[in-house]
Design goal:
Layout: E1 2-18, E2 21-24, E3 29-32, E4 38-57, E5 60-77, E6 82-102, E7 105-116, H1 120-123, E8 128-131, E9 134-136, E10 145-158, E11 161-165, E12 168-173, E13 175-182, E14 188-196
Parallel strand pairs: 9-14
Antiparallel strand pairs: 1-4, 2-3, 4-5, 5-6, 6-7, 7-10, 8-9, 10-11, 10-12, 13-14
C-alpha cells in the first residue's frame, strides 16, 4: 500500500496598460481616447491539496485519489474603478483499476475529473471594436468547465510492439461557447458564456 499527499499553490497576475490616441490635425497633438483604452489588472490564486492511495494484490492494481481545490479570480478596471471577482471550490476524484490477464495482456478502467478555466481575455469586460459594426466584450461571470472522463484500456504486448484499444466517454459541464448577437441598431455583439454541455 502506498499513500502520496501534497499541496500545490498557483499565483498568476496579468496587467495591461494599452491606450489609444488620435492626432488632432489642428493642434498637431495626440489626444487620448479613453473609450479605446484597454487597461486592466488580473489576479488568479489557486490552492490545492491532494491524496493518492495505491494498492496491488496479485494481478490487480488499484489507485484512488482526490484533489480539493479553491480558486479565486479578481479582474480590476482602474480607469473606471470597477472590480469583478469569482471564487469557487472544486473536488476532483480519480480512480484506476487494472488487471493483468497474462504477462502480455492488460485491461484497465479509469475515471477522472478535469477543469478548464477561462482566460483573462475571455473574462475582460472591456469592449473592443474592430469597426463601427462589431463589438467584443468578455464575460467576467464566466465559470470554469468541468469534464468527467471514463476510459477503458486494453493492451496487448508482442515482440514486434504493442497494440492498444482505448474507448472512452467524456462529459463536460458548463462548456464555454462563443456567442454572437445583433442588437436593434444592427451592432454585432460577441462574448463568451457557459451555455453548453
Amino acid at each position: 500500500t502506498k499513500l502520496e499527499t501534497g499541496f500545490k499553490g498557483t499565483l498568476r497576475s496579468n496587467a495591461n496598460d494599452s491606450t489609444a490616441a488620435y492626432l488632432d490635425s489642428a493642434s498637431g497633438v495626440y489626444t487620448p481616447d479613453p473609450r479605446r483604452a484597454n487597461t486592466f489588472d488580473y489576479h488568479e490564486r489557486i490552492g490545492a491539496v491532494y491524496g493518492v492511495l495505491s494498492q496491488q494484490v496479485g494481478r490487480v492494481q488499484a489507485q484512488g485519489g482526490l484533489r480539493l481545490e479553491e480558486a479565486a479570480t479578481r479582474f480590476t478596471l482602474p480607469r473606471v474603478s470597477q472590480e469583478y471577482g469569482n471564487r469557487y471550490a472544486s473536488a476532483f476524484p480519480s480512480a484506476i483499476i487494472s488487471y493483468n490477464l497474462t504477462d502480455k495482456r492488460q485491461v484497465k478502467l479509469s475515471y477522472s475529473r478535469r477543469v478548464s478555466r477561462p482566460s483573462p481575455w475571455q473574462l475582460s469586460p472591456i469592449p473592443f471594436r474592430n469597426d463601427a459594426r462589431h463589438e467584443f466584450r468578455g464575460n467576467p461571470g464566466l465559470r470554469p468547465e468541468y469534464t468527467d472522463a471514463l476510459e477503458l484500456g486494453l493492451q496487448e504486448t508482442r515482440a514486434w510492439g504493442s497494440l492498444q484499444l482505448n474507448p472512452y466517454l467524456r462529459k463536460t459541464a458548463h462548456a464555454v461557447r462563443y456567442i454572437q448577437t445583433v442588437d436593434s441598431t444592427g451592432l454585432s455583439l460577441s462574448t463568451f458564456d457557459n451555455v453548453a454541455s
